[in-house]
Design a protein that fits this description.
- The protein is mainly α and about 475 residues long.
- Helix content is about 70%, strand content about 0%.
- A hairpin with a 2-residue loop joins strand 1 and strand 2.
- Helix 8 runs antiparallel to helix 9.
- One of its GO terms (biological process) is negative regulation of DNA-templated transcription.
């Protein structure tokens, strides 16, 4: 029998009374330490690990040292120390904390990315809407603004842009609802833009006093040192006052503008209001100041011409037009302006020569000039082809449609005039809409189309409900239908 088995038998013959209390040494094995022979040879960690003597190697102890007793404390687990457990817990908590921080950073980055992307998409759609608006494609513009709002429903500008497109289509109730939504999301600084838009809506609708009130709310009582936006609001307010027949108020509003930012335009507009007030002296002063500031603006010369003519100052009026002619110029635009002045002076040969030269330069306005030249001479049939040529090329000039329709009315072609006025109304031009709408009704009446006339006047009254003459006209039309 080999030595290893013999050693095991010898260990098994040792009596249990010769040993101390058992202690844990390894999983599944109990070992005892001999009282009598500390060097007893037995299978120990020494023999397992290559210690040939087989002796148990004990660390020296200080049996009499009280400190050794203090260091002996109960433990749990695999020999772990409470300080080490706390350290592990802290490390675990730190790992969890860092993981949460990283997760939050990732979430914020994703949210920021989505917000930026949505903003970019919404802004692009809004820009497309503005392009469609500028080209007169208002329904297409509304579609783009709606898409922009689907990406950014809190953007006040998108609501306002949509409302303006709806206003151009005379969808006043829809526009008002859109502005209500804008007001709900607007901050304090954005309220001004909402009230400005509401004022424009009411101005287009023909509710002039309500428009003035809206513009006043937008200005919030401010009376000087206006911003560029506030100056724009004042221009709209003055227009509403003019439409309402409040000419003195309009003069005061234009004065506020001039005091903040004087320009040829504001002096011309105030001068025209002075004409309506009957203050010819102030009118002439303002119009001459406008010319001094912008000597090449033919519109101002013509405004001064009419202001002087209304006073019976014919010679002075003619002198003003001659001043304009002295500006000269050989461009298509300059030739058209010269032609228009010659028409006012009654020099039709010179006017025709200027217009034909402008036509050679491919200036479309020359066709309108020739048409109006023939109308001034009551040569209506000769004017027609030039009107046709002009509206065939320039489709958004509401004033031209009005001139064309009036020419047809003078010829007695009421049905065609009705069609032309209707086309002009469809342009939704704020400044010409009321005039065109009235002429549309009149053409239908002359054509004997009373059902259409009633339809037109009902539409007119939805926009200009304060027009007492139109209310009486509606009653007259209704009697003709019965």
């Amino acid at each position: 029998m080999d030595k290893k088995n013999d050693s095991r038998r010898r260990i098994n013959r040792i009596q249990s009374s010769d040993y101390d209390t058992p202690v844990k040494d390894a999983p599944g094995r109990r070992q005892r330490t001999s009282k009598t022979d500390p060097n007893v040879r037995r299978r120990t960690s020494g023999t397992k690990n290559g210690n040939k003597s087989g002796k148990v190697r004990r660390m020296p102890t200080d049996a009499g040292n009280p400190a050794s007793k203090k260091s002996t404390r109960p433990v749990s687990g695999k020999g772990s120390h409470p300080g080490k457990r706390k350290s592990r817990r802290r490390k675990k908590q730190q790992v969890i904390g860092r993981s949460i921080q990283i997760l939050l950073i990732v979430v914020l980055a994703v949210v920021l990315f989505l917000v930026i992307r949505n903003f970019g998409d919404a802004n692009k759609l809004n820009n497309k809407g503005l392009q469609a608006y500028e080209s007169g494609s208002y329904e297409e513009a509304i579609s783009y603004f709606d898409q922009a709002l689907s990406h950014d429903g809190g953007n006040v500008d998108y609501y306002i842009n949509k409302a303006m497109a709806q206003t151009e289509l005379k969808l006043f109730d829809d526009a008002s609802a859109t502005l209500d939504a804008a007001e709900n999301v607007a901050s304090d600084g954005e309220d001004q833009l909402v009230y400005r838009a509401r004022g424009i809506l009411l101005l287009s609708k023909g509710s002039y006093q309500e428009a003035i009130d809206a513009f006043d709310t937008a200005l919030d009582g401010k009376e000087s040192k206006f911003s560029s936006t506030e100056l724009d609001i004042l221009y709209y307010k003055a227009e509403a006052q003019d439409r309402a027949g409040l000419y003195v108020d309009a003069v005061m509003t234009y004065t506020q503008i001039a005091d903040t930012k004087a320009s040829a335009d504001v002096y011309m507009l105030r001068g025209l209001e002075y004409v309506k007030v009957g203050d010819s002296t102030s009118a002439e002063s303002d119009l001459r100041e406008a010319i001094r500031r912008d000597k090449k603006n033919y519109d101002i010369y013509q405004a001064l011409y009419w202001a002087l003519s209304d006073q019976g100052r014919t010679d002075e009026a003619t002198a003003v037009l001659n001043e304009a002619l002295d500006l000269g110029g050989n461009s298509g635009e300059a030739l058209v302006n010269q032609g228009n002045i010659y028409v006012q002076l009654g020099d039709y040969a010179s006017a025709q020569e200027r217009f034909e030269r402008a036509l050679d330069k491919k200036n479309a306005e020359a066709n309108l000039g020739l048409a109006n030249m023939y109308v001034a001479q009551q040569k209506y049939s000769e004017a027609l082809p030039y009107f046709e040529a002009y509206v065939g090329e320039v489709t958004d000039n509401a004033s031209a449609y009005n001139d064309y329709g009036n020419c047809l009315m003078a010829m007695g072609d009421y049905e065609k005039a009705q069609q032309i006025f209707t086309a002009g109304v469809a342009l939704n031009n704020r400044q010409m809409d009321q005039i065109l709408s009235k002429n549309q009704i009149s053409a239908a009446e002359y054509a004997g189309d009373w059902s259409a006339a009633l339809e037109y006047i009902n539409t007119y009254l939805t926009k200009y409900a304060d027009d007492a003459d139109a209310v009486r006209e509606k009653t007259f039309i209704q009697t003709r239908i019965r």
